[in-house]
Amino acid sequence: MIDLRSDTVTRPTEAMLESMREATFIDRAVNAIESFWKRD
Fold it and tell me: What spatial distance separates the first Cα and last Cα of the chain, rounded to whole Å?
């Protein structure tokens, strides 16, 4: 039997969580949508 649950069962370490919190995420599509809705 193949166990495919590993990505949903394991928990991130504190170092992983810190990396995610500090990561810069650049998505031009999201930025364009946010800019569109922020304009007056």
Answer: 57
